[in-house]
Every structure is written in C-alpha cells, then in structure tokens.
C-alpha cells in the first residue's frame, strides 16, 4: 500500500467515526493547550521578575556593609551588624577605578515631611547626583541633586510624584521649602511618576544629599554603595577592583559584601525557569493521559472494525499494511489534536496578555516544541499496541464478525 | 497441470474439549477454468475448505499447491501477496466498507497492492461500466440495493484479474431474481476463463455448476467429475 493511500485510508477511517475522533482530538488538544498556557504563565512570571530587576539599573554592582558567608544573595546580610562602617569616603574612593562608570552612595531611613500644614511619613534616600542615572530616574520638573562634594550636604531635596501631589496638589512645588525631620530643605526637582517597582516605590521617595541624610539619621555608615560598571563585560573586573579597594581601605579586612545584579537576576531566572519546567512536567501528565485515551479509542476502533480488517486481509492486505493504516490513524488523531491544542493554548496565552498587560505570558519555544513532540510521540507510542493487535487478527475469525 | 491441488489436508478445531475434524485427509484437484459447486450440510467442512483455498486458514497437515506452487508453508505476508494476485472473494453479506463509495470499494484491492491512482481509476471506470454500475460510482453501500452491492463486491473480487474466484453463498442474501442476475454474472466470468468455486446450500444453484462436490463430515462424499 502506498503512503498516500495509507494516509487517505486512515483519514477516511477517522472521519468515518466523528464522535470518537472528536473525543480523542479534544483530549490531545487539552493536553497540548495545558502545556502551552501553563508554560506561558511560568515563563511570563520569569520575564516579569527579570524585567522588574532590570529596571533597577544596568550593569550594577552593589556593595553591602558586612560580610556574608558566601558571595551570593542572602537576605541575612541586610541585618548583620557591621564591624566597620562603610563610609562616604569609601564610596568616593571607588569613583576612580578603571572599570567603574558611576558610583552612588546610599543611606536610607524614614522621616516625616511637611509643607503648608500637611505632613506625612516618607522614605528618605540620601545619595548623590549619579544615583539618578544609575537607577534611570527621570526628572519631571527641575533638576537632580547638585553635583557637589558628597561630604557637604546642601539643604535641597528631590521628591517623588506622589509626595508632590499630596503636599502641594496642583500648585508648583519647585523652589518651595519643606520640612524633613528637623531640617528645612528646598525642593530642586520632582521625579516623574513610575508606579510600583520591586523594593521601594519611587513615587513616595524623598531624595537628599547623602551627607544630609547621615546627619539626619545620626549614622556614619551607608546602606549600600551602587556601582555601575562601564560595560556588561566589565562587571567581573569592577566587582574585583571594588572588593580589593575596600579591603585595602579597611586594613585588609574583607568586611563588605559585593553582589552583582547579574547574580541576583541569574538566581531568580534559574528559580522561575525551574518552576516553569515543573509546571510543564505537570501539564505533560495530561498529555500522557491523552495518549492513553488515544490508545483506548484505537482499541475500540480495532474491535469495531474487526470485520473490515478481516476483509482487508482477504483482499490481500499484509499485516504491515494494516499496522501502518492504524498507526497513521492514531498519528493523525494526535497531530490534529496537537495543532488544535497549540492554537487553543496560544489563544489562552493571548487572552491572559489581554487581561494582564504587564504580564508577558508568552509560551517559550522549547515548551511548544516539546509539547507538540510529546503529543505526537505518545499518540504514536500508544497507537502501536492497537495497530499490532489489528495486524495479528485471524482473518477467518475477523470475517465472521462482520 | 491443475490450478488447485490438495493432498492429505487435515484441519480440526477444538470445540470445548472435543476435537472436530472439519477436514480429514482431503484430496482434491481443480483445473483452471472449472466451474465447481461445493455443497453439503452445515458443519460438513465446506466453509473450512473455502477458507483454506482462499489462504485465510492453514491446514494442520497436507499440502496445498496453487498454480504449481506450494502455498501451505508461506508466511502470512507472502500468503497476503498470493491472495492479492490470484484469489478473489465474494461473500454472502457482501463485506463492503461502509464509509467508502462503490468506486473506492472496487479499487480497494488495487490500493492495497500499491497500484498507481491513475491506473486504478482506469480499471475502476471499466469495471463500473462492465457491471452496469456507471451511475452508482459515488454511492455509499447503504445507498445501494442488495444486487448492486453484490455486483460491487464481484467487481472488487475481479479487479485484480485473479485466476480463482471463491464465492461463499453469493445469493444467500438476495431475492430469486437478483440472485439469478448475480449467478449469470459469475458464470459469464467463468466463461472467460476464471476458475469459479461456489459454496452453497441451494440445490438448484449447485445443479448449474459443471462439477459438484458434496461434503459430509470433512470428507468428499461425492464428486461428479469422478463419477463421470
């Protein structure tokens, strides 16, 4: 029997029993659609987190005071006590390093901000002009912090969009005086609204010169030093030189932790990648179930068509012809099911993206390919047994069943 | 040389705990072009004989030579090839594939044999004309009358131009008139040289054949050729 004839015969057989065919196509379609939608969700979560992290700044090397056991990202480093302060001069010394493009010290605390009788609690970040460039902050009005000596805290502030709105409403804030803690500061700039990011909300932030913040919070140490490497390739070199410089300044004691944004990103990437894989695995179980259903359907088909198989044998069909015809039918059922499922899954992912525009729910290519391949594979695998059973039927017995 | 040569054929079935000898020590020769009726009561072994002749069943002992070639020891797939080229079947209940049209049913043996589509089309068109089915080519079996169905089945059985045609009660499901039509059709094929073997209960049908084999308990009770 020619291949084209086998396919034609199998197609006619499949369409000859519409309900049975529709059922197994549906089962396979649901399996594939589940893989596509679930991996789209998992990978969407991964992309979402990665993009949120990227918005923190690019090529970032972060210096934390204190030493953690390993070099990785460790929440415990946020609360360990520091044997030696990480000072403004430490941060300033990093500016001259070759692989470093920008450096920004960061001291944070909470305080109250008031103007014109209105008062609210706010997050205060003490830093320098470069911080705005590192974090990709955009200025709506005025300017960023002045580029002067880090140890000289000028009485100025840049405020977030939300603070501006709550304290001043529609009246202009630029040049106005506000009270932050016990200081009177002049507003030199207002940030553009950005919405919620990971970590702090910049809309509710007040940014002041670092020395001013340290004086306000009565502290000598920095919360972080943000270092931007001159390029992506320079990140390891920058990390190394930052660590060496600080070690020298701290009399050979390695009492800071240097993490790269890459490492943090890679951790999340791995974590969520594994999650996607696990979800894909769960969805693959539904594919196996669909494969078993195809096998059942094909076994029923063999029983239903016993007389026909006997007839085909009487007409000169070899066991191979019959095996191939039934295999082709199983393959067709799973192939059509896989394609329908793929389209359903893409439609589902599209609907997800419509419903949650910030969530990039695109199924990864590997999942789509693996899903389709698994569908075809299980269809064929589970088609083998019924096809062999059909081919082994005794023609005399089979003909009597007609 | 005879077309069919059976020597010492034994075929028994196990029914419960008793062994039934459907065929026992059967010897038979049928020459090319003969018109043979196989008759006998139910259980006399005539259907088993037909299945053996059609290579659908294997004997436990004895040899079957078809066209001078020993076909008893062939593998199932080799037997399938012999069936495809040399044997045509006509069944009592027609055995048409319900989802295929008349033309597709007729083409089925050629499709299975891997004959190109163009050649199939040519031969099916000719067969449809020969069997008066021109206007029924695209009809499904359930849209055909009994006589038309059996004509489609005969067209299918002869489309590969086999030298041997086996018919199992070909008129059993037909009324007297269409039954006669079908018999005339088979006899016309026999007149053109096809060896025709009909299994039947019907004495009048048996009487038409030039050679009559009467079976009883797995033996040949009488053979009109031997008596002559």
Mean model confidence by pLDDT of chain A:
86
Tally of domains of chain B:
1
Structural class by helix and strand composition of chain B: alpha/beta
Alpha carbon gyration radius of chain A: 33 Å
How does the major sheet of chain A shape up?
6 strands, mixed, barrel
Question: Oligomer, anyone?
Answer: heterodimer
Which geometry of chain A do the CA atoms define?
Answer: elongated
Radius of gyration of chain B: 18 Å
Measured as a percent range, the helix fraction of chain A is 40-55%
Q: H/E series of chain B, N to C?
A: EEEHEEHEHHHEHEHEEH
Entry summary:
Chain A is an alpha+beta fold and 402 residues long. Chain A contains 12 helices and 10 strands. Chain A folds into 2 domains: 3-52 and 267-400, no CATH class; 84-254, no CATH class.
What can you tell me about this protein's structure?
- The complex is a heterodimer of chains A (402) and B (228).
- With 402 residues, chain A is α+β, with helices and mostly antiparallel strands.
- Chain A has 2 domains: 3-52 and 267-400, no CATH class; 84-254, no CATH class.
- Helices cover 54% and strands 17% of the residues of chain A.
- Chain A has 12 helices and 10 strands.
- Chain A has a 6-stranded mixed barrel.
- In chain A, strand 6 and strand 7 (183-191) form a beta hairpin.
- Chain A is elongated.
- By secondary structure, chain B is α/β, with parallel strands linked by helices.
- Chain B has a single domain, classed as Rossmann fold, CATH 3.40.50.
- Chain B has 8 helices and 10 strands.
- Chain B has helices at 46-53, 76-86, 102-113, 117-130, 146-158, 176-191, 203-208, 224-227, and strands at residues 4-15, 18-30, 35-39, 61-66, 69-70, 87-90, 164-168, 195-199, 211-216, 219-223.
- In chain B, the strands form 2 sheets. Chain B has a 6-stranded mixed beta sheet with strand order 6-7-8-3-9-10, sandwiched between helices. A 4-stranded antiparallel beta sheet of chain B has the order 2-1-4-5, covered by helices on one side.
- In chain B, helix 3 (102-113) packs parallel to helix 5 and helix 5 (146-158) packs parallel to helix 6 (176-191).
- The longest helix of chain B has 16 residues, at 176-191.
- The radius of gyration of chain B is 18 Å and the shape is globular.
- The model of chain B has no long low-confidence stretch (mean pLDDT 92).
- The A-B interface holds A 1-2, 4-5, 9, 12-13, 15-16, 307-308, 311-321, 395-396, 399, 402 and B 51, 54, 56-57, 76-77, 80-81, 83-85, 89, 91, 93, 95, 97-100, 108-109, 111-114, 116-117, 156, 160.
């Amino acid at each position: 029997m020619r291949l084209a004839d086998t396919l034609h015969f199998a197609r006619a057989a499949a369409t000859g029993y519409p309900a049975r065919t529709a059922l197994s196509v549906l089962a396979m379609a649901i399996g594939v659609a589940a893989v596509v939608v679930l991996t789209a969700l998992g990978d969407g979560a991964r992309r979402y987190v990665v993009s949120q992290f990227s918005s923190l700044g690019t090529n970032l090397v972060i210096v934390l005071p204190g030493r953690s056991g390993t070099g990785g990202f460790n929440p415990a480093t946020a609360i360990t006590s520091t044997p030696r302060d990480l000072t403004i001069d430490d941060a300033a010394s990093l500016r001259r390093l070759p692989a470093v493009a920008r450096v920004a010290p960061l001291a944070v605390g909470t305080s109250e901000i008031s103007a014109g009788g209105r008062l609210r609690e706010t997050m205060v970040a003490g830093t320098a002009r470069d911080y705005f460039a590192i974090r990709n902050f955009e200025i709506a009005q005025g300017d960023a912090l002045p580029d002067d000596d880090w140890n000289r805290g000028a009485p100025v502030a840049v405020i977030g969009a939300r603070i501006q709105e709550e304290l001043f409403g529609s009246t202009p804030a630029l040049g106005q005086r506000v009270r932050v803690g016990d200081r009177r500061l002049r507003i030199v700039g207002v940030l553009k609204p950005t919405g919620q990011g990971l970590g702090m909300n910049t809309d509710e932030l007040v940014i002041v010169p670092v020395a001013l913040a340290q004086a306000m919070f009565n502290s000598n140490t920095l919360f972080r030093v943000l270092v931007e490497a001159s390029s992506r390739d320079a990140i390891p070199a920058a990390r190394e030189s930052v660590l060496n410089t600080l070690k020298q300044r701290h009399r050979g004691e390695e009492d800071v932790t240097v993490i790269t944004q890459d490492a943090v990103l890679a951790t999340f990437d791995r974590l969520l990648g594994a999650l996607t894989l696990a979800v894909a695995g769960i969805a693959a179980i539904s594919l196996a179930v669909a494969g078993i259903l195809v096998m059942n359907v094909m076994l029923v088909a063999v029983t239903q068509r016993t007389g026909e198989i006997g007839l085909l044998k009487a007409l000169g069909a070899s066991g191979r012809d019959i095996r191939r015809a039934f295999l082709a039918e199983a393959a067709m059922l799973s192939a059509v099911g896989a394609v329908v499922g793929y389209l359903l899954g893409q439609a589902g992912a599209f609907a997800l993206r419509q419903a949650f525009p910030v969530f990039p729910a695109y199924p990864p290519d590997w999942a789509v390919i693996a899903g389709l391949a698994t569908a075809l594979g299980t269809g064929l695998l589970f088609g083998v047994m019924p096809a062999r059973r059909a081919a082994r039927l005794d023609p005399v017995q089979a003909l009597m069943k007609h | 040389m005879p077309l069919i040569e059976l020597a010492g054929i034994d075929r028994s079935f196990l029914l419960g705990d008793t062994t039934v000898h459907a065929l026992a020590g059967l010897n038979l020769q049928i020459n090319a072009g003969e018109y043979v009726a196989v008759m006998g009561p139910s259980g006399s072994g005539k259907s088993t004989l037909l299945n053996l002749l059609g290579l659908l069943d294997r004997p436990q002992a004895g040899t079957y030579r078809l066209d001078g070639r020993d076909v008893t020891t062939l593998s199932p797939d080799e037997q399938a090839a012999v069936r495809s080229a040399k044997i045509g079947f006509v069944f009592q209940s027609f055995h048409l594939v319900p989802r295929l049209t008349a033309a597709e049913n007729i083409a089925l043996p050629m499709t299975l044999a891997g004959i190109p589509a163009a050649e199939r089309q040519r031969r099916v068109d000719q067969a449809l004309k020969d069997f008066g089915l021109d206007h029924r080519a695209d009809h499904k079996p359930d849209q055909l009358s009994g006589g038309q169905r059996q004509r489609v089945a005969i067209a299918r059985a002869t489309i590969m131009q086999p030298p041997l045609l086996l018919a199992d009660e070909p008129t059993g499901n037909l009324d007297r008139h269409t039954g006669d039509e079908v018999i005339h059709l088979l006899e016309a094929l026999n007149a053109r040289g096809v060896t025709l073997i009909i299994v039947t209960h019907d004495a009048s049908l048996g009487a038409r054949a030039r050679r009559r084999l009467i079976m009883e308990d797995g033996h040949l009770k009488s053979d009109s050729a031997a008596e002559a």
